[in-house]
Amino acid sequence: MNRIFYRSKNGCTGDVIPFYDKGTFYLFYLHDFRNHDVYGEGTPWYYLTTKDFVTYEEHGEVIPRGNKESQDLYVFTGSVFKEAEGKYHIFYTGHNPHLRKQGKPEQAVMHAVSSDLKHWEKVPEDTFYAPTDIYEPHDWRDPYVFFNEEKKEYWMLLAARTREGAAIRKGCTALCVSKDLKNWKAAQPLWAPSYFYTHECPDLFKMGEWWYLIYSEFSDKCITRYRMAKSLNGPWLAPRDDAFDGRAYYAAKTATDGQKRYLFGWNPTKNGSDYKPWEWGGNLVVHEVFQRENGLLGVKMPETVRDYFGKEIASIGTINMQCPEGFLTHPIEANLGPSYKISAKVSFSSDSTKLGIQLRHDRQNDSSYAYVLDTTRNRLVFSIIPNHPWNRANFENVERGIVLQENKAYDLDILVEEDVCVAYFDHSVALSSRMYANAGHGISLFVADGNARFENVKLYGPVI
Asked: What is the pLDDT of residue 350?
């Protein structure tokens, strides 16, 4: 199926566990049916395969959930690892909230093995729990396994909480070590910054001389971030911009084909309305990760996705907009389908306060969504135009910090597929969001309190 923002048919796509093998990306994911009455409680693992992040082949369930008496009623996040001999391992979280009531740990690390990535056998005797002399018992999840070449042993990183510390800030990246992938010994945390309740979905990779530790902030912010270090011993340094996307992108993990590295996260739903809270799970969104000269990371649109949008729908050319005070809109007429890309180079004068591109612009009722370059705050923001009353928050914190200079042209690309949208600013910053109203309405450019220039404005549809 061709869909750049994949969502499972009878539910939603949760945490994605990516693995690359023999020319194919295997995307294991938590399948949430969102219907206990019909499908029962719990989440199994399903999986997809893709070579280009445009065409996905569905393969269905791969690790079944247990029952209410089982540790893995919910088969939660983990990782896939391949031994040198070719044997595959999945280490995953067995989660069962009913066990806590029985005085048992709610979460455990569990093990499954395979010879072909398609058929998996659980190994229940390898299940292990958080050692309570170091860690709290009920947060012991999202195992990420790799082979530490320097130590010549397997390392496992986990989202956990230390036994001691500030009540709300015990979150850490726990560490376990093993010689055989069966017997694991807990060590002191790899990283315990005393920041968050937990940091979920740890991921680790090396580019050049830098190690990068990926985590998702379990807080009201719900953002995937990273730290960087020259050694696995740390210190784990915080970049000035440590995020890959905004509030509407979570639980992201990476995989590489040996040439490029990609980030796989989900864009949450809002139960069909802009005014509902964000939900767990939604649609898959893939970014390409790249390293800057100073070692900092950025993300951009995958080339295969850019190539997919190769059918030119409209070429608008250059639009100069002058608005010394107030707000000015420039409509664009085009026949758009449910999936399209907008590209433009944008620049502004020193007095401009905001400029950007409106999506789903209902001109009769004066309502739209917009990706806004806020020059007063150096932010890329997703919002609604015009603003709604103060008590109706819809896209709070869906924004990114950027550096904006007057009279400098920046590339702005926007992908839309049905109600999911993603903007890429200057081929280095991403911002995902959702749109539930005004389906089928048009595109407009806008500027506030100054001058803006939109060059090489083009609209593309998918090549089918």
From this structure: 87
Ranges of residues in the chain whose predicted pLDDT is under 50: none
For the full predicted model, state whether its pTM sits above 0.70.
yes
- 354 DSSP β-pair partners: 374, 448
d(Cα 345, Cα 425) in Å, to the nearest integer? 10
Pull the structure tokens for residue 244: 């890959």
Helices (H), 87-142: 97-100
Alpha-carbon 18 to chain mean position: 12
What is the C-alpha to C-alpha distance for residues 109 and 107, in angstroms, rounded to an integer?
Answer: 7
Q: Do the beta carbons of residue 344 and residue 412 sit within 8 Å? A: yes
Amino acid type, 458: K
Measured CA to CA in angstroms, residue 24 lies from 81, 196, 257, 260, 334 at distances of 15, 35, 8, 13, 36
C-alpha to C-alpha distance for 112 and 341, rounded to whole angstroms: 41
Whole-angstrom Cα distance, residue 76 to residue 15?
8
> For residues 252 and 264, is the Cβ–Cβ distance under 8 A?
yes
Contact 175, 157 (CB under 8 A): yes
Do the Cβ atoms of 176 and 218 come closer than 8 Å? no
Instruction: Give the whole-angstrom CA distance, residue 97 versus residue 109.
Output: 15
The pLDDT value recorded for residue 440 is 85
Contact (Cβ atoms closer than 8 angstroms) between residue 461 and residue 337 = yes
For tokens 């620049």, the residue is 347
First to last CA, the chain: 11
- Long-range pairs for 148-156: beta carbons < 8 A, 24 or more residues apart: 148/177, 148/232, 150/232, 151/177, 153/177, 153/178, 153/179, 154/178, 154/179, 154/180, 154/181, 156/91, 156/109, 156/184
pLDDT at 66: 96
Q: What is the pLDDT of residues 230-268, one digit of tens each?
A: 999 999 999 999 999 999 999 999 999 999 999 999 999
Alpha carbon distances (Å) from 401 to 159, 214, 300, 380: 27, 19, 16, 6
Q: Which residues lie across from 445 on neighbouring strands?
A: 330, 357
Burial 358-381 (b: 16+ CB within 10 A, else e): bbbbeeeeebbbbbbbbbeeebbb
Chain position carrying tokens 């190994």: 123
Phi then psi for 38, rounded to 5 degrees? Answer: -90, -45
| Helix (H) or strand (E) run with residue 303 in it | helix 303-308
Identify which of 281, 255, 251, 254 has the alpha carbon closest to the alpha carbon of residue 265. Answer: 251
Per DSSP, the three-state class of 100 is helix
Amino acid in position 394: N
pLDDT in the model for residue 392: 66
Nearest-5° Cα angle at 207, 205 to 211: 50
